[in-house]
Design a protein that fits this description.
The protein has a single domain, classed as Rossmann fold, CATH 3.40.50.1360. The chain is 25% helix and 15% strand. The strands form 2 sheets. Strands 1-2-11-10-7-3-4-6 form an 8-stranded parallel beta sheet, covered by helices on one side. Helix 7 links the parallel strand 10 and strand 11.
Length: 297
């Protein structure tokens, strides 16, 4: 994406010249770089940030292909830096990616012994034994299936008595690890990343979130009833996410097409939280054909 200089508008027009990779190109070790960039976010709709030009969008054939390509990038990071810090996501989007990583471990290609992880978010009010907590999710889909040290895995504590203190603790933890080397993200139908919901500001740091009705609706399929879906969560803030050295966002399905198109080809606005990634220096998007169906060709 070409730099367009300083912007002083509340909404900044999106670019039309992203690099979009098609065909059989594999996203692998060559996609992993260590360029460090720390964007400064203003806690307001007005964003005086300079756009970055290095966003790559790879089109996958389907969910399985998307998962394989994403796993290749994460695997390359682990191979190149065995003690790396992975920022991890939950939900349906990354399950296939985690399955691919487990397969790599079972083949003997990957070693998680020194890897450290920090998760994006956790529901408030769900303990570790609750099968809908993100702690439980991560152990079921990845942590308990590879040789990672449980002491090196980190998920926000949704049962903390003082949620504000927990948010502050989590920020300090991430800093103490030296920051996130690569942050895996999904994207919500409303454009949320982590649980950063559409708003009139970009929240900077880890914080307590009131979930929107659309997010609650999207998540109720995982619960016995809509009444069981938590209404709040602890989430890394936009500022926290943007400090990651590299961003890897995955998206699959036609229901994500509007969000993907608006996030990466529309204006930068906190009403579409993922649009802030247009300002990050090193972003890879891997999405299947359905999720990219409304993007410019």
């Amino acid at each position: 994406m070409q730099s367009s200089g300083r912007a002083d508008q509340a909404q900044i027009q999106g670019p039309g010249n992203f690099e979009r990779k098609r065909g059989r190109a594999e996203a692998g070790a060559g996609a992993v770089r260590t360029a460090v960039h720390a964007d400064r976010l203003q806690n307001a709709r007005i964003c005086n940030l300079r756009r970055k030009k290095d966003m790559r969008i790879y089109e996958a054939n389907d969910y399985q292909d998307m998962s394989r390509k994403a796993a290749n990038i994460l695997a390359a990071q682990i191979i190149l830096k065995p003690d790396c810090v992975l920022g991890l996501a939950t939900g349906s989007s990354p399950i296939g990616t985690y399955d691919q990583l487990v397969e790599g471990y079972n083949r003997g290609d990957l070693n998680f012994a020194e890897v450290k992880t920090v998760n994006l978010d956790e529901y408030i009010g769900l303990d570790h034994e609750n099968d809908q907590s993100y702690y439980y999710f991560m152990h079921s889909h990845l942590f308990d299936r590879v040789n990672i040290d449980p002491a090196n895995t980190n998920v926000p504590d949704g049962m903390a008595e003082d949620i504000d203190a927990e948010c502050e603790r989590y920020e300090k933890l991430i800093r103490s690890l030296g920051g996130v080397d690569i942050q895996l993200l999904g994207i919500g139908r409303n454009g949320h990343i982590g649980f950063n919901e559409p708003s009139d500001i970009f929240d900077k740091m880890t914080h307590c979130v009131d979930l929107t009705e659309s997010t609650i609706e999207a998540n109720k399929r995982f619960f016995a009833s809509a009444d069981d879906v938590p209404k709040q969560a602890v989430s890394m803030g936009i500022g926290t996410i943007m400090k990651a050295k590299k961003i890897l966002l995955i998206a699959s399905g036609e229901d994500k097409a509007d969000a993907v198109a608006q996030a990466f080809f529309g204006p930068v606005t906190p009403e579409m939280p993922a649009s802030i990634l247009q300002f990050h220096s090193d972003v890879v998007v891997i999405a299947d054909s359905a999720a990219l169906s409304k993007c410019p060709k």
